[in-house]
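Example 3.2
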Amino acid sequence: MTTLLVIAKEPVPGRVKTRLTPAFTPAQASLLAEAALADTLEAVAAAPAERRVLVLDGRPGPWLPPGIEVVPQCSGGLDERLAAAFACCPGPALLIGMDTPQVTPALLAPATGPDAWQGHDAWFGPALDGGFWALGLAAPDPALLRGVPMSVSETGAVQYGRLLAAGLRVGRLPRLRDVDTAEDAQLVAGEAAGTRFAARYARFASASAASASRPVRP
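Structure, written as tokens:
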């Protein structure tokens, strides 16, 4: 069976989701990140897997559900940290981030089901911003990630090209939107009804709207 990996940062104000400010305060941005991470881990906990591993920059908190191992991220660029996450897996592994709280076990199913690796050597989930939200490898090879430029518009194209150049049979997962900006947060909250992220976004957006409507006293 597949090992499910989640790579994430501890949701600390000023360290996560900094592009959500100034629409949200740093504290609100960190709480939105916490909700997104909790939703992601809930989906991972409900999906079939041999192991469920959180590759974490920071310390675990009350948002961590039972049954998920925690290992620290290595140092270096994101490509090195992703490569190191795969290096700890002796068999098939699927890695996702913490930026897609709309993820569900059903969205992960093609890469986690009993037939996931029959006819596929890799799985790729593209993101709307040009990156990717999921990457699966039947035989994890860290070299497939090292040197891929991360957090740029061509990240996904370069990573997908690496897989094809290696001769891998690549299955495609649905294209999803990452939560990076306030606009992303609004759109993802609308897609993810019933999640912690959507509820927390609605509360913060409502409070912000109420504050903006109050008259300014001279």
